[in-house]
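stuck on this fold:
=====
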Amino acid sequence: MPDHPDYRFTLANERTLLAWLRTGLALVAGGVAVATYAPDLGVRWGSSAVALGLVLIGLGVALAGYRRWRVNEAAIEAGRALPASRLVPAAVAAVAAVVVVVGVLVGVEVLRG
């Protein structure tokens, strides 16, 4: 048995990390786009709040992806099963919350209009 884990598993884990980093970067870019191009979204602070939420979620996703990579890498090196992760449900819930806030703010804008 070799002293090192199968490189395919390590490389797959690295590709997963890169996917989480791309997701985080896309969320940050979305936040910047909302701050730059979106109207006030029904209230004066609406677009700023949505933009800040997206940027913070993007940062959280990138950091959590890195943490998951480290935990998975340790499990791969030790020959253990990969631990379960709550990263996907947490990211989905956070983005869904932003979508709900945007929906409410757009609804306020439409009702005022």
About this structure: The radius of gyration is 19 Å. The first helix runs from residue 7 to 37. Residues 7-112 form one domain.
